[in-house]
Amino acid sequence: MATYSTNEFKSGMKVLLDGDPCTILENEFVKPGKGQAFNRVKFRNLKSGRVWERTMKSGESIEAADVMDLDMEYLYTDGEFWHFMRTDGSFEQIAATEAAVGEAHQWLKEQDVCQVTLWNEDPIAVAPPTFVELEVTDTDPGLKGDTASGGTKPATLSTGATIKGVPLFVNIGDVLKIDTRTGEYVSRAR
Amino acid sequence: MPTWQPSADHAALLARAQMFSAIRDFFAERNVLEVHVPLLASHTVTDPDVESIAVPGYGFLQTSPEYYLKRLLAHGLPGCYQLAPAFRHDEQGRLHNPEFYLLEWYQLGYDAKRLMSEVAALCDLILGPAEYQQVQYAQLVPDLNAPRDELDLAFALACESLKPGRFFIVDYPAEQAALARLNPQDPSVADRFELVVDGVELANGYYELTDPDEHRRRFEQDNQIRKARGLEPRQLDETFLAALHAGLPDCAGVALGVDRLLMHKLGAKSLDAVITFRPG
């Protein structure tokens, strides 16, 4: 099994900590001039998303995690699993559980390319595209001509997501550009 | 495209040049002689917590000019200093770079207390005047009898919490004397000090040990620890031990990391802001 020593740690490296796959966020070298060296390491648990901080002795090793991020096209959900297909032409498909898809489910639109994190070839996390374009399925009627006033309202999108802060001129059937990092309205797509 | 630009900006480089010049003036006024000793030498330190960079066919890049400067003192040179790079293997981070500038100086007839006030005077010159508080090593760790690795970690974290302000840590346990004398009144502590400014260690100084037999004993003990940790033991530097036999005058010495000193002056968070380039 591959291992990484603290002096090889780099942000983005995938390791196993307490049995969970984690990515290294920060690695700070701590050393008094005449004393042993330590590394203060911040990890993000890839399953829970939580951030862990550990102080390790320099030179200590931890196991590498077989984790990779793959671009995959979202196909459909059967209610239990979310199905994705590789974009490398192999047409290989995988099914992700609700736990793996997490919050991303509200931004998933068929044929959009997402980043799927695989651990030992199982999907453990899904990151939607930063910007998605989704159709409005429900909102209060638009106010004609009101393209300038600052008022906003909520809107429900085709994926079931509800977003706040939509301008009053938006109508059912409009397609909106959404920033999935914040869940906020960016613009009308057309 | 790889980043080719320097990591320090123009203003930082100007401040750096001015600081080096101010340091040299500080010592010129005090009649402390600037010297240049080899940075690449056949021997290196035995310290189990300091790893040297080996240069095949030549020896080691020096982790400090200590032995050479003491050889100069043993030969009759008065107080002297070197302002030059020092090298340490595997030290890389916000506050560490394998190559860094070390200001190391020795004053004949000084003890730790007198040297501390000179260190404070230099810091006041570069950073502006401030108060200095003294803290005993034992006040910083919960249990002096804890195993060494736990002690080192507790100490490192305690040093980071010494902020804001300037602190001299004194009364190191005898086991951590390095090359300092033991305190004649209380041999359980060493006449060693460190300067911590805003949570960052800047300098380490000793009322210097002069006894050659005690040196040899400590070097051999270091090598025992190195072996126990799976590190290669170091050949003792017999030229240094011979100089001690000839007689090192009563003196105190200190080494100060000038890159970090500049970081404090500029309020920088990382060495990147004060060194031209970070290799790698």
Explain what you see.
The complex is a heterodimer of chains A (190) and B (280). Chain A is mainly beta and 190 residues long. Chain A has one helix and 16 strands. Chain A has one helix at 98-101, and strands at residues 3-5, 14-17, 20-30, 38-45, 51-57, 61-63, 67-77, 82-86, 93-96, 113-119, 122-127, 131-139, 152-157, 162-167, 175-179, 184-188. In chain A, strands 9-8-7-10-11 form a five-stranded antiparallel sheet. In chain A, strands 14-13-12-15-16 form a five-stranded antiparallel sheet, with no helix packed on it. Chain A has a four-stranded antiparallel sheet with strand order 2-3-4-5, with no helix packed on it. The radius of gyration of chain A is 22 Å and the shape is elongated. Chain B is of the alpha+beta class and 280 residues long. Chain B has one domain: 2-Layer Sandwich (BirA Bifunctional Protein, domain 2). Chain B has eight helices and 13 strands. In chain B, the strands form three sheets. An eight-stranded mixed sheet of chain B has the order 1-5-6-13-12-11-8-7, with helices on both faces. Chain B has a three-stranded antiparallel sheet with strand order 2-4-3, with no helix packed on it. A two-stranded antiparallel sheet of chain B has the order 9-10. In chain B, a hairpin with a 2-residue loop joins strand 11 (192-197) and strand 12. In chain B, helix 2 (66-74) runs parallel beside helix 7 (238-247). The longest helix of chain B has 20 residues, at 10-29. Classes of the chains: A mainly beta (190), B alpha+beta (280). Chains A and B meet through strand 3 of A and helix 5 of B.
Instruction: Give the topology string of chain A: H per helix, E per strand.
Output: EEEEEEEEEHEEEEEEE
Counted by DSSP, the helix tally of chain B is 8
Number of domains of chain B: 1
Largest sheet descriptor of chain B: 8 strands, mixed
Measured by residues with Cβ under 8 Å of the partner chain's Cβ, the largest interface is: A-B, 16 and 25 residues
Order of helices and strands of chain B: HEEEEHEEHEHHEEEEEHHEH
Q: How many strand units of chain B?
A: 13
Overall form of chain B: globular
- Averaged pLDDT of chain B, please? 96
Which stretches of chain A of 5+ consecutive residues score pLDDT under 50?
A: none
The CATH superfamily of chain B is identified as: Bira Bifunctional Protein, Domain 2
Q: Looking at CATH, which topology of chain B would you report?
A: BirA Bifunctional Protein, domain 2
Euclidean distance between termini CA atoms of chain B:
15 Å
Tell me the major beta sheet of chain A. 5 strands, antiparallel
